[in-house]
Amino acid sequence: MAVNNLDRSRWYLGNVLWFGGYNSKTDRENKFGFLSSESGTELFFHKNELNQSNTPTDNAPVLFREGIGKNGKPTAFNVHLLDKPDEETSERLTEYLRDAIEGGIDFARWRYRDCVVNCLTQFFGDSAIRRLATSGIAVTKILPLFYKSRNYNSQFAVLAADESFGSLIAQQISPADMPSSFIDDNIDQFAVWVKNFFEATDCQGAGASPSDIINVLLDHISISAILYLAFYNYISSERILEHRRDDIEIFVRRSFTKNKMDILPFVRDAYQQNFSSREQYHEHPVISPFITAHLIKQKMFRKDFSFVNDIESNAELSSDPEYFILSKLLPLIGRNDEQSVLSIILHEIWQGVLLNKIPVSHPSIFKLFPQCNSLKIRFLNLKLSCEAFHWNAKQPDGTINKKFLCRSKVCHDPQVLADLSQDYSDFTIYDWLAHYGMTYLVAGEPSKRDFPIKLAGYFNRIRELHSRLHCRSCGVLMVPNMKYARIEASVWDAKSKRFVKKPFQAAYRLTVFKCASHSCEQFGIGHYINHCIGYKCSEIIDARDLSEKCAEGRFICASCGSCCTKHQEKFGNVNKGETEQVKYDRLYRDSPFFSS
């Protein structure tokens, strides 16, 4: 092909518009096509100008030289396909990039950036990048090409292979543009840079604020580098917690588990240099906000009952339902019979509810009493804890199929079985009870009679019936009916820091509630509030709304007509045509824990 005015001074980038295809005039496949250059010019190119045997596809990126063909039209020569390039193409692309960088290209706005970076990463390995790094072009001009690319860390390592942290800083490369792994490898120099940066800022006088680069860096560097800076107090604890609070909390939490966070050796060196004792480390302002809760859990696990004092003296934890309940419950176990434990803890829980120490939809309640998927699916509007129990389902052939039921439905992932193999930081109430020796009557087969299931059901009933538990006269939250039967229980005494015998007179029934406001006309009047025992009914039985009773003295459900186990023949008239969801919404939409 004759060539006129071929520009051999530089390479150009473009993409294939089309190539080949059947030509009806010649009755054969075309051996030519057209591509578009960076400037938008369309150029003809022939198959003979391709440096490879591959057939180019539409939109494929190409590197080429521009010229004029024999027909006097713009033509592309020496066309290199970048989607499957070779070493020669690598050299040409390096040459092109060198010219582009010297010409002041803005990589942030360059339409071919992702394509070229992908080629450099996927096909050429490190060779093209190394050519750029050794071509005399400043690293600071090359780096923008690779910013935020998938393999930026490895590309940076090639470019900065012979550079130190200090030399990169001297070239005005910000630490925020250095991979966190590079900063870790140069942590001493980085820390000095941070210290000098703040000292230089302080010299600017009062009111001068540090550059935003520090905030960017705190989000960018590794947790190991964060801890190093914190232990040497190179950056204020307040600023570190503002940016990396969640990471610090995870680090502290995992330091108490088997699955400890991978921390680089220089953090341990910094720890040994700056702390003379573990207590001093615990008091560090970056660590202290998270350490107390885990130290208390550690004491719980070791059955060191001084954790009760720790919780009571800590305003934040004493108002956390998880810690409140465990501080009241765990010291009772093993020293009192189960009925006494149940009576006392229900008394404590209700007092906590009355005093708003136990918001019954607090997330930590669900950590102690987790949800199961069965209830999540069935009750979308009101979060309820799993209260599954074991059920031997007899099959038609006489065999027994062991299942779990939760609210009369099969529960496929019961949350009520203890798993002591996990870290104690993740213990549910069932794990803590098993750890303290309170197990189910039949191992692995919880029943409605078992203490943990009663406790889970109690919280669910409070959530569901909460709006019903207020006095209709004065609006005050009613209290469960108290039976004045004294109980002497062994409890932990916070003052003497030992177990003592203490009398209680609060054995609560969970079905009769009364107003405790002396100024109310309903004061002291008990009202039976419960769920119907009819099969699959669960209508709310509220004595204030019902008057008809059976011969056994039990209220007759307005929904299914059932009343007591003696009159089971009445069971079965369920829902009166309502779907389960419609009925559920009707019963509980007044609860403050119900969400639309």
Plain-language structure description:
A hairpin with a 4-residue loop joins strand 4 (32-37) and strand 5. The model is unreliable at 1-7 and 203-208 (pLDDT under 50). The longest helix has 18 residues, at 237-254. Helix 1 runs parallel beside helix 3 (127-133), helix 11 runs parallel beside helix 14 (288-302) and helix 17 (321-329) runs antiparallel to helix 18. This protein has 23 helices and 16 strands. The chain has a 5-stranded antiparallel β-sheet. A 4-stranded antiparallel β-sheet has the order 11-14-15-16, covered by helices on one side. Among the domains are: 12-84, OB fold (Dihydrolipoamide Acetyltransferase, E2P) (Beta Barrel), CATH 2.40.50; 174-286, no CATH class; 360-465, no CATH class; 479-588, no CATH class. By secondary structure, the protein is α+β, with helices and mostly antiparallel strands.
